[in-house]
Amino acid sequence: MVVKDILEQVGIPYLSVELGEVNTCEELTAEQLKLLKERLKCADLELMDDKKAQLIEKIKGVIIEMIHYEEELPKVKFSVYLSEKLNHNYTYLANLFSETEGTTIEHFMILHKIEKVKELIMYSDLNLSEIAWKLHYSSVAHLSHQFKKVTGLTPSFFKKLKNQKRKSINDV
After folding, report:
1. In 107-124, which positions are buried (b, 16+ CB within 10 angstroms) versus exposed (e)?
2. Residues 40, 46: contact at Cβ < 8 Å?
3. How far is the C-alpha of 77 from the C-alpha of 29, rounded, in Å?
4. Which of 30, 46, 59, 137 has its CA 20 to 30 A from that of 164?
5. pTM of the model
6. Cβ atoms 147, 155 nearer than 8 A
7. 85/33 Cα distance (integer angstroms)
8. Domains of the chain, with CATH numbers?
9. What phi and psi, each to the nearest 5 degrees, are found at residue 16?
10. Per-residue DSSP letters for the chain?
11. How far apart are CA 20 and CA 47, in angstroms?
12. Would you tell me the crossing angle of helices 90-101 and 51-64 to the nearest 10 degrees?
């Protein structure tokens, strides 16, 4: 809604506005582009007109959508899934991501998988075997190793922390 309001204030006709993407009716003039960038910046948003930056955001979006919002992870290898989803060669996507973000696609995905593991430990009744299966880990040991590497805690210790009640200020 914020982006729609800004487009209307600047007088830019648009066909559609979706998360991360705007389709305008016509090419923007240099003045419209400048004004749009200024207004977006005031709203803590930015215009990404660089095709590579847009592709990086799409990679992140696919990973976040897949891990956090899909009911089940895809059955195909992730590299194939991402390539098909974005219509680019995986090697190109991986190299672009690494150069731009300073980390690999795999590491970005691991961080999000661990966040999902934390969420499932905290808010679901699934045990670690079920969580490992759901997120396509080869074993509970693999999940536990990755969890500890990222968080510094074992999943079971993390779960114990969840179960502890907070102390009152007087008891600290």
Report:
1. ebbbebbbebbbebbeee
2. yes
3. 43
4. 137
5. 0.70
6. yes
7. 29
8. 2-47 (no CATH), 52-162 (1.10.10.60)
9. -155, 155
10. -HHHHHHHHHT--EEEEETTEEEESSPPPHHHHHHHHHHHHHTT------HHHHHHHHHHHHHHIIIII-SS--SS-HHHHHHHHHTS-HHHHHHHHHHHHSS-HHHHHHHHHHHHHHHHHHH----HHHHHHHTT-S-HHHHHHHHHHHHSS-HHHHHHHHHSPPPPGGG-
11. 9
12. 100
Tokens standing for 127? 């045990």
Q: Which amino acid is at 113?
A: K
Size (the chain), residues: 172
Sign of CA dihedral 76, 59, 152, 156: negative
